[in-house]
Amino acid sequence: VSTSHLQLAAFALGTVGWILCTVSMGIVEWRVWHVDNTTIISSGIAWVGIWKVCFISYLHVSPGYKEQFCHKFSGYDSSIPHEIYAAQGLLLIAMCTGLLGLTATIFALRNVYMGIPHKTLITRFFLVGGFFYILAGLCVLIPVSWNFYSVTHNQSIAFPPSYYMPSSPAAQEAGAAIPIGIIAVILLLLSGTFSLSYRFPVTANTITK
Q1: Which residues cross the membrane (predicted)?
Q2: Is 44 strand, coil or helix?
């Protein structure tokens, strides 16, 4: 048990990283667009996520009330950038591989804390868990980096007319999903490194007379 403290920390970090990965996937605030035309986008701010784009409008709403309108991305919209669809697939892979990493780590820790001295089984499951953690971290890193690059270069998106979105913003900034994704990457990579560093203790056979 005393040799698996890092692996226990890996499980804790991996759990938090996996949760943050799932949270970032559901958040719409990946890119925050500031637009000049507030005729429809009343607040002047729109949020571009990896599943949909949303904005607040006061049109067709009673005075003093506001409503959030969202348009989900369709797989048939050729105008939507490839990094958005790539982010969808990669984050789904990260969620699945992160869950596999947690499962493998739980199984290995169970054997360790229950005193089951199966060296090959324990070591292999820690290695499998570490591999899945690192794979999940890399799958999160790619869409986070790609979208952050798009934000820093103020890249435009040719939305369909039905979205009521301009093709390019006056300015844009990184939304909450990007820093959450960065933290998830760090935690998943750390947990993967800790899991891969496990070494089964070597015990010397003693003869008692």
Answers
A1: 6-28, 40-59, 84-109, 121-149, 169-190
A2: coil
Closest by CA position to 13, among listed 191, 156, 180, 164: 191
What angle separates helix 119-152 from helix 82-113, to the nearest 10 degrees?
Answer: 150
The pTM for the full model equals 0.83
Cα–Cα dist 129/26, whole Å = 24
pLDDT mean over 146-154 = 89
Residue 86 has pLDDT above 50, yes or no: yes
Q: What's the CA gap between 94 and 24, in Å, rounded? A: 11
Domain ranges of the chain: 3-27+76-197
What span, in angstroms and rounded, lies between the C-alpha atoms of 44 and 36? 6
Name 114's Cβ contacts closer than 8 Å, sequence gap at least 6: none
DSSP state of 164: -
- How far is Cα 158 from Cα 26, in angstroms, rounded to an integer? 23
**Sheet-wide strand order for 31-34:** 67-72, 52-57, 45-48, 31-34, 171-174
Please state which CATH class domain 3-27+76-197 belongs to: mainly alpha
